[in-house]
Amino acid sequence: xxxxxxxxxxxxxxxxxxxxxTSLLVWNRIDTEPHMTATNIETGEIIxxxxxxxxTDEHSAFEVNDSIVYLSKNTELKLVDGREGQIDLQLxxxxxxxxxxxxxxIREVDISTTGQTSVVHYSWLDEIxxxxxxxxxxxxxxxxxxxxxxxxxxxxxxxxxxxxxxELDAGxxxxxDFYEWVxxxxxx
Length: 188
Hints:
- This protein has 188 residues and is α+β, with helices and mostly antiparallel strands.
- It has helices at residues 2-29, 176-186; strands spanning 38-40, 46-47, 52-54, 60-64, 67-71, 76-83, 86-98, 102-106, 109-122, 127-141, 144-149, 152-156, 163-166.
- The protein has 2 domains: 1-30; 38-186, Jelly Rolls, CATH 2.60.120.
């Protein structure tokens, strides 16, 4: 009799440990924080976490947690994480201008902005251009950090991560109409 009670108590204890461990794993896996969404300012289209903001023949602007992201033509931008205080976007390809505090990732490169910053990802060339426009931008890659303030760089997104400082001349850019559109949009 004593032996069977011990097995029952032991089995009960083991079951309880398994249930608690499983509950903790499931609870940590399920995100309990609400996620922000991205909203197309012109159409009202809502982009949820994991979805891609895409443009083809027209520019577009999205509001993400009180920040604005402007997408040029033929641009793909994924909303990776939309938790408050941790907005992470992944630029798949194209050209964007960011307003305020946002984080962008492109391959192994992370970009954090404060203010207005232009980011271009030439996916077929494995390089990006980052230009600060009245802002400070941190770029992290390969255990290095660059801080840009009213500067522009061209950076290879794969090892050996070659950095070249460049000039941003938005008025004479091949995308001058995009920068004019952003400028007119921000003045509204």
